[in-house]
Amino acid sequence: MLxxxxxxxxxxxxxxEVFDPYPSVFFNLILSMLAASRRR
Length: 40
Hints:
- The longest helix is centred in the last third of the chain and has 15 residues, at 25-39.
- The chain has one domain (2-39).
- Helices cover 62% and strands 0% of the residues.
- It starts with a helix and ends with a helix.
- The chain has helices spanning 2-11, 25-39.
């Protein structure tokens, strides 16, 4: 999942503005929801 996120954010959209800039708030939200769902 991390590799896909980095590749889309950095390499596949090189000429466009990145959709989730550095602190990657949206990515952290996705990972937190994934971790919470697997905890049950």
